[in-house]
């Protein structure tokens, strides 16, 4: 673990471990030290802590039993989806028990007539997408990790993705939840219908709460009819500023693309050769623009959006690449963060959002930051909603304090522009020291009090979000 | 007031009134008894209570000053938008001060480049729509009262409307808020960007909280590009069941209309002659189907949806009526609840939502309820999201206990179907006795504790939501 924390929790005693085994059944307890490593981190490098025990339940009753014990014996429980988070949210910072939801992974129902899905939290995002697709339906949220991340984790972090520019984030698809409170009580929140305003919106309070308020055990999700057609245009630019001006032009002119993804020059240096377009590697910026909807209009829409790219200095525009090329391109886009991570000893994924109209200005200033703080910044992400993944790398951990300083400066800049320090990764452990940059003390104080309401004994994912 | 409540609050003393006047300025205090009546009720008939004082601030500092005093001197403050609510949420049930937000009504900014609006809470919904439209932008939420209701009230109740089937409710457009806590502190929540996951989602906790947690003083709203075209089809049916089967067919076949409004036979008896279609009055059900989007596709979309109506027993389908007829039709639709209210001495607007696939079944059973409980039920609403406004009327208040029994039975049925007792009006005062039908004690207990966190001294809109 990069941060040292003194633990307010005693190690699990043998009688407590016996009680856990008794309550949840031996079959779902993992205690073998060689297997605990897998639960010591998420996809955020550099932060790890071994749990003392892992519980991997298959029923909600097991979840309840574990939390009841934790609440009585005061041991920390860290809920975990499939470990693809990028903020250390699933790291058991005070050891104790990791509660892996991986095996509660049933798609309970895809209800075509009511356009909803009922799923357990361990379902993989892409599996739900496929199951919906088979019935002509669409579950839009599409984080880059969609082939390996869980719906429960998506809800815990309010995960976004490429389609957010048109379809919103996970929050917009969660109609209702079943969740276990830290005292073991089971609650149901929200509705199974398209809308409802009965009492406070606990559903959306739990979504994005990063497993600190309750453990989600079932989700009722909104589905849409699957869009009949999709079309894509790809544009290469000399620099990121022209690419971002194109983005502004596209959005200001009434287009609603379902993806507006970009890669900067540093990303193209790394992965440009894998892209199915000549000269991609030598370009200064890459923009992928996608539209979905009626077959009779999507091509015209991307044509219009391609024209805005040309108007704003695109050096090459490739309309409607075939589906093989499209798949290849998306694969490169999805793998870019892993490729960057593998290329650098120090890799810190930031996840800022700036107002759309400020993106070009903001990215213009990145080389200055990079030079001043001696880091290399790879920028890619969801240009359509201003969500820029700044992947900050350095060649040695020796310069970490300078790297941290640079990150702080960048986040300050983001907040001063009216932006936010996390668009979709969450705060977790990695960003809690920056929370005060964005949230005033009165706001944090309310949030802490809400945490206290849900988790009076502070046993659920302690040490996250707040310092 | 229909319900008798003993007040835990002392009447405002002359020194407290003087302190309020001093703090907020005489100009925004209304104490003239002849003017207080206007603030004694909302659009829900039969529930009224005069406030002792009305404060109508123009600045956030006045709101803060009033709440600070209320928190210290323990008098109730009932926030009020423009009084169009249908659940008694703005009725000052324990007298005290009504805080009217009507004069904080500036549209601060329509930011075309960032697709957001920044507004004060007293802005009228339709005024915001028009201001956005002038810049080619679109603010979708469209409650029937949109010409007279306020954005702040919309947010307080998470108001929906006809376009919810495609565009969602007010919640989906609130990105960030500025609000004053009951202790007078000012907080900012959420973001000015398209997404953000920094801490708990206080924004969406405040949305729909019916003015019981904080007073919203500024809203940052998401806007969309304005859809370039709209097209409509109207279908008349012998009975509501065929109309609802058509709705199911439309939604199950991948169509995404931007309105799917219905009127039942009782509504048509009342307003059918005002509709610009022959034979509307004699029909058993009326369905208005609207699509928006690219000009080249909307007509084809409504044609397809009209065909589903014919497949499901429509006796007449009128494609793409001219814009004059369309406006006339919408006006009738928007006025239907007022017309019903004016026709009956007892009028209770219910606002249930049932799963889409269950609508036909549900409405099939309404005549049984009507007969058993000796009421007349006018059903209309937003078929596309299962949100049915059941307007329950009776010819005399003498039969109120039977009416109440009938409502209870209907709401029980709704909940047993997986529906919700309020789709967009909220709980307020009118429905709090039904809250337990939908929310389990553990859920209500959490909500009460959250109320306690925000409003420790219970001075903000007391007596609402919870009994």
Helix content of chain A: 25-40%
Largest sheet of chain A: 7 strands, antiparallel
Cα radius of gyration of chain A in angstroms: 22 Å
Mean pLDDT of chain A: 93
Shape of chain A: globular
- Oligomer status: homodimer
**Mind telling me the CATH class of the domain at 107-225 in chain A?**
Alpha Beta
Q: What proportion of the residues of chain A form beta strands (DSSP E)? A: 15-25%
Placed side by side, the strands forming the largest sheet of chain A appear as: 15-12-14-13-17-18-16
Which structural class should the secondary elements of chain A be placed in? alpha+beta
Q: What's the CATH architecture of the domain at 107-225 in chain A?
A: 2-Layer Sandwich
CATH topological fold name of the domain at 107-225 in chain A = Uridine Diphospho-n-acetylenolpyruvylglucosamine Reductase, domain 3
Q: Give the N-to-C terminal Cα separation of chain A.
A: 16 Å
Which pair of chains forms the biggest interface, and how many residues does each contribute? A-B, 91 and 90 residues
Number of helices of chain A: 16
């Amino acid at each position: 673990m990069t941060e040292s924390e003194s633990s307010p929790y005693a190690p699990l005693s043998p009688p407590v471990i016996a009680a856990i085994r008794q309550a949840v059944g031996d079959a779902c307890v993992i205690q073998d030290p060689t297997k605990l490593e897998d639960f010591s981190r998420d996809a955020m490098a550099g932060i790890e802590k071994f749990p003392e025990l892992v519980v991997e339940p298959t029923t909600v009753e097991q979840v309840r039993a574990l939390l009841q014990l934790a609440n009585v014996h005061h041991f920390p429980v860290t809920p975990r989806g499939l470990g693809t988070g990028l903020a250390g949210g699933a790291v058991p910072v005070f050891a104790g028990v990791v509660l892996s939801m991986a095996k509660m992974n049933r798609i309970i129902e895809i209800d075509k007539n009511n356009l909803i899905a009922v799923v357990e939290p361990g379902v993989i995002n892409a599996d739900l997408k496929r199951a919906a697709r088979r019935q002509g339906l669409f579950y839009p949220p599409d984080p880059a990790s969609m082939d390996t991340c869980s719906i429960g984790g998506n809800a815990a972090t309010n995960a976004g993705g490429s389609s957010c520019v048109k379809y919103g984030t996970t929050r917009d698809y969660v109609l209702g939840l079943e969740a276990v409170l830290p005292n073991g009580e089971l609650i149901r929140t929200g509705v199974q219908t398209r809308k409802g305003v009965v009492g406070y919106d606990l559903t959306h309070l739990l979504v994005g709460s990063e497993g600190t308020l309750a453990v989600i055990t079932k989700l009722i999700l909104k589905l849409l009819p699957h869009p009949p057609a999709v079309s894509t245009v790809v544009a290469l630019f000399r620099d990121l500023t022209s690419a971002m001006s194109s983005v502004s032009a596209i959005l200001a002119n009434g287009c609603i693309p379902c993806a507006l993804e970009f890669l900067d020059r540093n990303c193209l240096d790394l992965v440009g050769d894998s892209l199915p377009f000549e000269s991609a590697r030598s370009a200064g910026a890459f923009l992928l623009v996608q539209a979905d909807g009626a077959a009779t209009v999507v091509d015209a829409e991307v044509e219009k959006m391609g024209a805005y790219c040309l108007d704003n200095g695109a050096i090459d525009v490739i309309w409607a690449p075939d589906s093989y090329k499209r798949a290849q391109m998306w694969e490169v886009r999805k793998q870019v963060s892993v490729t960057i991570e593998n290329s650098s000893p120090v890799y810190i994924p930031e996840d800022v959002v700036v107002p759309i109209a400020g993106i070009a200005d903001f990215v213009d200033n990145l080389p200055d930051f990079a030079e001043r703080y001696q880091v290399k910044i790879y920028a890619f992400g969801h240009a359509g909603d201003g969500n820029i993944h700044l992947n900050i790398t350095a060649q040695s951990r020796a310069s970490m304090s300078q790297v941290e300083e640079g990150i702080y400066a960048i986040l300050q800049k983001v907040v001063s522009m009216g932006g936010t320090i996390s668009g979709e990764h969450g705060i977790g452990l990695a960003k809690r020291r920056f929370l005060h940059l964005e949230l005033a003390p009165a706001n944090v104080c309310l949030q802490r009090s809400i945490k206290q309401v849900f988790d009076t004994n502070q046993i659920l994912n302690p040490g996250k979000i707040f310092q």
